[in-house]
Amino acid sequence: MSRPALLDLLPDGVAVADPDVLAAYRNDHAQFCPSGTPAVLVRARSVDDVVTTLRWAHANRVPVVPQGARTGLSGAANAIDGGVLLCLEKMDRVLEVDTEEQLAVVQPGVVNARLAATVAEHGLYYPPDPGSRDISTIGGNVATNAGGMCCVKYGVTADFVRGLQVVLADGRVLRTGRRTAKGVAGYDLTRLFVGSEGTLGVITEITLALRPATQRPLTAVAFFATPADACRAVAHHLGAGHRPSVLEFMDRPTVDAVSAMADLGFPDDLGAVLIAQSDVGAGAPEELRAFELSARACGATDVVVADDPAEGELLMRARRLVGHAQERLGATLVDDVCVPRRRLAELVEGVARIAEAHGVLMSCAGHAGDGNMHPTVIFDKSDPAQAAAAERAFEEIMRLGLDLGGTITGEHGVGVLKREWLARELDETALWTHHQLKNSLDPRGILNPGRVFG
Amino acid sequence: MSRPALLDLLPDGVAVADPDVLAAYRNDHAQFCPSGTPAVLVRARSVDDVVTTLRWAHANRVPVVPQGARTGLSGAANAIDGGVLLCLEKMDRVLEVDTEEQLAVVQPGVVNARLAATVAEHGLYYPPDPGSRDISTIGGNVATNAGGMCCVKYGVTADFVRGLQVVLADGRVLRTGRRTAKGVAGYDLTRLFVGSEGTLGVITEITLALRPATQRPLTAVAFFATPADACRAVAHHLGAGHRPSVLEFMDRPTVDAVSAMADLGFPDDLGAVLIAQSDVGAGAPEELRAFELSARACGATDVVVADDPAEGELLMRARRLVGHAQERLGATLVDDVCVPRRRLAELVEGVARIAEAHGVLMSCAGHAGDGNMHPTVIFDKSDPAQAAAAERAFEEIMRLGLDLGGTITGEHGVGVLKREWLARELDETALWTHHQLKNSLDPRGILNPGRVFG
Q1: Helix (H) or strand (E) holding B176
Q2: CA B186 to chain centre
Q3: Confidence category of residue B424, pLDDT binned at 50, 70, 90
Q4: What is the chain A residue with the closest CA to B440?
């Protein structure tokens, strides 16, 4: 292949065409998602680099895949044959933390945990905490509207985005939103780009709302004989008007996987656990007592309230190990269906039936307070029959999520992995609307073509 | 004029062409906004009526102005010559209140206060509380992304909209969003329609997130010698990490106007007041003590904490009287600029200078906690010189808001009144993006043409 012309338009070292380097950037963390052979990798250092790249790609009708740290789970950042990989991870500066207005302005490549730590030094709190927070970037979080454990009380990434700088398909630079707490001047362009998975523009700067730091949380853990009991406790507790800062679920296989890495001191006979936190300070013991009552009313076999915050932090670290613990057992295929809370028990029971029917190992954890669960198929990738069964089980869980009045994706996005399924969740008019919006902003279809919808 | 064909397509009584009836629906509450002579008024009873109307209007390229209770303050619901007024106020049913999932499904014509009262009977809370809440509809609130006093703690209308049913320009019915707490399947179409002021579709059903009922709030009022001192106290208090459930500002002319209607028992020599509330129950006295400290640190001459919630409710009723109190003094032209909180003091001082320069009476109240103020010019509409001066002062306040890093509209919307100003707040690329989105969904330009942008 001849030397791509884009290399000469960018500063030295920004663009590379070396196949060995390109190979390292071809895939995100999704399974079963094809990735093509890209022609160029651009590691943008500035908005100008992004503008140059898009102008060239627009003029030459070359597909561009924007990507951050490639920690996504739906293949949206995977390479396209002959296209440009436009990586934003080197644009990684926290440009501003404004304590008085409680906002931060960041470049897209800033890693979530670094931002959270930076603003914490200023007495502020950036809640969105996807499981990937130690390695994923804010740009990627915004592009997928990432969630996490905080959402039950504080909301998702979109709820913290006040404004964006976006480079449009033809290289023009758009500013959306505002720095002020409120504003209704024109359409909500910010929200249109949040969660659009790189199909409408390339995000180059983000203005984020922050919150005052919360109190160090107190933690409780409730043990249940069955996953369904735990799910009923979730619906009961939140339906009664409580708002814990965390309400997480782990089933028995998940607890076993984590226990192999860290001694949790949990009883042997559990079917599932719920972990609840309260960050309201003096009122926290009372909030956790209410949680205990809800759990016991739904059949909890025991409830333990951690006496000090450090114990709770250990427990949360264990919860955050789930992904690693599952990956030690095999390849993983992670669903992220989200259902109405009252249907959670049906969801976990249905997931168990699906696992049995397909003879696959299933481990289920999730943000139960939001109805957002991560049933995870664990399988041997080298065994084609197992891989095929895993894929079928993964898809049946999406069908179940839809049947229960939910969505195929609560926080991971559609990407390539769930593209065919988007058409089952949305109707024809909604898909038409997506196409119209996409065509209106990217008429040549160069931005992450074929992702999210066909 | 001949009998419009649309009348025969709709059920009896749904559409009328009687000029006397039409006249009553021609205007919203905005001043200085032209309204045309409409051909037909459709008072839709069902989605089918809306579909029929839009199909006909689309086929015949007739402009359609959607409207609710016409309480808007920017002229977005004003009639267009020869067009259809499509009024949704008769679609006024609360279709569902789901206590377990904490959501409500409503038709657009439900009045805000009625919804709030209905969900309160179920132990739930619908926070958005625009000043018009006793008379404005949820559909109108959604179409303008209305705010209110709750926003400083709970956010704006958009933050409570989970999903919509929207009739598109050509009469197709679109469903956006979801019932679940989270969901990222496709673009955030819901947010695109929220705040779009009737230019992208006609909202026929709304799924709203609710919150658990809060504790009955406690209230404090702080008195200041100058408006600037009060504004500094706002920035100081929120910058220190406090989150009152209400933080409202009234200047001296506003307090005087309200005092003429209700005895507030305020001291005679005040320059401005702040009203703060806390709805956190047992922690409320502590939150209000923190407010008192912030206020005194910024020069408050006195701070009074109401001993019981009833006193606070009287004070809030007084705050809600502001609009009526101002209208007793003359015609009013209400700005709703929103600035970063640290610029609030500059805003109120600048507004005073503008009032003096133009020789107009200015009364300023607002949602100071959000930086969202309502400087209100009060004038004699029958005096052309005064009216012209009022209009100039109104515009200079928008210029000031922009100069201070803010927005021309924090919660009232652009409509007709601020259309020319939108082009000063947004740049060319942002305006291009608006046009592209509008054209992609309403290629014939029949939906509220000429509103928001040109």
Answers
A1: strand B173-177
A2: 28
A3: very high
A4: A436
